[in-house]
Amino acid sequence: MLPPTPPPLPPSETGPRWWAAGAGLAGVLLGATAVMIGIGQRPVEPAATSAVVAVPQAGPPRLAEAVARTRASVVSLRTPTRAGAGVIVDATGHVVTNMHVIGDVLAPRHGLGPGPEAPPLVRARFIDGRELAAVVVVADREEDLAVLRLQPPEPGERFTAAALGSSAALRVGDPVFAVGDPSQLAHTVSAGIVSAVGRTGVLGNVPVLQLDASINVGNSGGPLFSEAGELVGLIVARERDAEGIAFALPVDHVRGFLRAISLEGGRRSGAIGVTLDLDVPLPGTLAGLGYGTGLPIADVVADGAGAKAGLRVGDTLVEVRGTRLDALAEAEQRGALGLWFVDAVRAMFPGEQLPVAIVRGSELVRLDIEVGAATDREQTFIDAEVLLGARLDRKQTVPTIAELLPHGLGRYQEPLRGYVVVGLLGRDIADVTALGKTLAELRDVTRSGEGRLTAWVRLRSPSGEESSWPIKAP
Known about the structure:
Layout: E1 20-21, H1 23-30, H2 32-41, H3 62-70, E2 74-78, E3 83-88, E4 94-97, H4 99-102, E5 121-125, E6 131-140, E7 145-151, E8 163-164, E9 175-180, E10 188-203, E11 206-211, E12 223-226, E13 230-238, E14 246-250, H5 251-262, E15 270-271, E16 274-276, H6 285-288, E17 295-300, H7 305-309, E18 316-320, E19 323-324, H8 334-346, E20 353-360, E21 363-370, E22 372-373, H9 376-388, E23 390-392, E24 401-404, E25 420-424, E26 427-428, H10 432-447, E27 454-460, E28 466-472
Parallel strand pairs: 1-10, 8-13
Antiparallel strand pairs: 2-3, 2-5, 3-4, 4-7, 5-6, 6-7, 9-10, 9-12, 10-11, 11-14, 12-13, 13-14, 15-22, 16-17, 17-18, 18-19, 18-20, 20-21, 23-24, 25-26, 25-27, 27-28
Helix pairs in contact: 9-10
């Protein structure tokens, strides 16, 4: 059953407008140019002599030019209860936004039964006042990202897409501007600067950009552009208890998301092909270089991303994405620090850049790792940890529980070590490969709905007895 048709967007009071906020900061950005404009607008008094007085002529400011170039790629989005914005990323009409902007049109699903007869609809309005329906193509709760596709009356219509820039090139202090619908004021522009890069703890382990631009309810899902008019991020959150603090998902991560959902087999967790050893003593050279802790590398896969970037056995990781490991809250416990690093890598998309610093002997070496994708088998073990709360024995061909985690099956606090997963979602599981395929479907469902899914796991004990255990997938 389709959700109720969203109400039409309220008409503009005086026709389409491109709102602008943050004028004070814009004036600072313009600097002397703004002064020259002011002088040029004053009437020139005739001179007492016949000398010609030259009046400086200033061109339009760069920010206004960038806003003009990007306006056609931004849409306002409405559902029955929510409002936000999105940005067109290709000429066929695919729009990227936050999942929470369109979450109310996604009917909660509690199993893997057939979906609705038609995909849910969202209304999209352009700067010129035109409205189109948009269907939800992909929704990912974990990433808080969604992809919609515009539905023009004539098939084959082409749309103006935003030019994708590079968030890796952004520096603290770079000017940026955001576009959104705060208080349903469509296509409002707010200018500011990048106040921090690589900020974690806002959206899980994904590092985000911190901004000082004026961001309010309704900006969610809207684009963040550079002064050159290139898409460099997607607004994801604002700091509720502070003025002028907001966050944007870097466009490099958004690009990775789009690439991942277009690949056969769906998205894969990030992987760099290294194994850590948390039990060996740290090299004494760390202290001499000013570092208090690190993560020793015990093994490097020959053709993995880490090896291609130059990592070697015996290296010790001391910085990740410009953050010192000894400055993290997890630094006091090497086990927690190792888990933090593993989760950070898994949260990345293949193709994203992971800058690290390592201590090699008595030298500090900086490397840029292009993150790879987990193999099918490795993805199965990752999904089992995340969805089932079980760490599997990697030496077995059948999915055998080696350790329980605090969630999923681990919540029962039962001694399930040595039990074998023989069924999931009503399907028989014969081996690790079969489990991986079913876990991939479970992962897609849990990531695409706002509600939590209940899944039943059938286990066989070492003595041959079978039992079913309901779990709430995260």
